[in-house]
Design brief:
heterodimer; A: 4-stranded antiparallel beta sheet; B: mainly beta; 7-stranded mixed beta sheet; 4-stranded antiparallel beta sheet; 55% strand; globular
Chain lengths: 114, 118
C-alpha cells in the first residue's frame, strides 16, 4: 500500500507568491516523523523541514512551514515568497518509529515563474 | 547542516567492470548510512541500509552479490557495483543518519553518482 501520497505531479507558482505542496501519509504507528526534501536539477537531496508526530506546533524553517493535520494524516509544505531558485522536485518522506528507513513519496515538480 | 560527500559524481564504464562509489560524512559520524537508486523522473528507491561494523541490510529484490556494501568506519560507506551491465545505469544516492536538535533523526544526502554502463 502507498504510504506517502503526493497528488500533484507538477505545480506552477508565480515568483514572490506562496505555494502549498500536498502530502498525505498512511501509518498505524503512533510515533513517526515527517520530512520534506528538495531535489534541484543537480540531483542532490536537500533536507528542508521535519515534523514529529507528537509535535504540538507546526514546524517552520525560514520560508518553509509544514501544515500538519494529524487527524487527516496530511503534512503539506508551504513555501512563502517563492523564488526562482525554488524550482525543483520536492519529496515528502516518513519514518515510522518501528523502522529506521524512510519512505518517500513520488514527488512534486515545482516551477517558479518570473 | 551535516555534509555528506559522494565520489565520483559521475562514472562511465564498460559492461562487465566493477565500479566503487564512496559516501562520506564530512563533519559528523554516521553509524547508519543508506543507499538509494533513482530512475529518471521517479522517486528514490532504497537499496540497502549500511550499519558500521556489521553487514548491510538489503531491500527485497536487491542482489547482495551485485551491490556490495561496506561500512568500514563511522564516516565512510562504499557501494561496489560488480560486473556492471547497462541496466545498472542509474543515479545512486547515499545518505547518512544524523540527529537534529531535540533528538529526532533525519537523513542528509550526498550529491549522488550518475553511473552509465556502456
Amino acid at each position: 500500500a502507498q504510504k506517502i501520497t503526493q497528488t500533484q505531479p507538477g505545480m506552477f507558482v508565480q515568483e514572490k507568491e506562496a505555494v502549498t505542496l500536498d502530502c498525505t501519509y498512511d501509518t498505524s504507528d503512533p510515533s513517526y516523523g515527517l520530512f520534506w526534501y528538495k531535489q534541484p536539477s543537480s540531483g542532490e537531496m536537500i533536507f528542508l523541514i521535519y515534523q514529529g508526530s507528537y509535535d504540538q506546533q507546526n514546524a517552520t524553517e525560514g520560508r518553509y512551514s509544514l501544515n500538519f493535520q494529524k487527524a487527516r494524516k496530511s503534512a503539506n509544505l508551504v513555501i512563502s515568497a517563492s523564488q526562482l531558485g525554488d524550482s525543483a522536485m520536492y519529496f515528502c518522506a516518513m519514518r515510522e518509529l518501528r523502522g529506521q528507513n524512510f519512505v518517500f513519496g513520488p514527488g512534486t515538480r515545482l516551477s517558479v515563474l518570473p | 547542516g551535516a555534509v555528506v560527500s559522494q565520489h565520483p559524481s559521475w562514472v562511465i564504464c564498460k559492461s562487465g567492470t566493477s565500479v566503487k562509489i564512496e559516501c562520506r560524512s564530512l563533519d559528523f559520524q554516521a553509524t547508519t548510512m543508506f543507499w538509494y537508486r533513482q530512475f529518471p523522473k521517479q522517486s528514490l528507491m532504497l537499496m540497502a541500509t549500511s550499519n558500521e561494523g556489521s553487514k548491510a541490510t538489503y531491500e527485497q529484490g536487491v542482489e547482495k552479490d551485485k551491490f556490495l556494501i561496506n561500512h568500514a568506519s563511522l564516516t565512510l560507506s562504499t557501494l561496489t557495483v560488480t560486473s556492471a551491465h547497462p541496466e545498472d545505469s542509474s543515479f545512486y544516492i547515499c545518505s547518512a543518519r544524523a540527529y537534529l536538535t531535540g533528538g529526532a533523526d533525519t537523513q542528509y544526502f550526498g550529491p549522488g553518482t550518475r553511473l552509465t554502463v556502456l
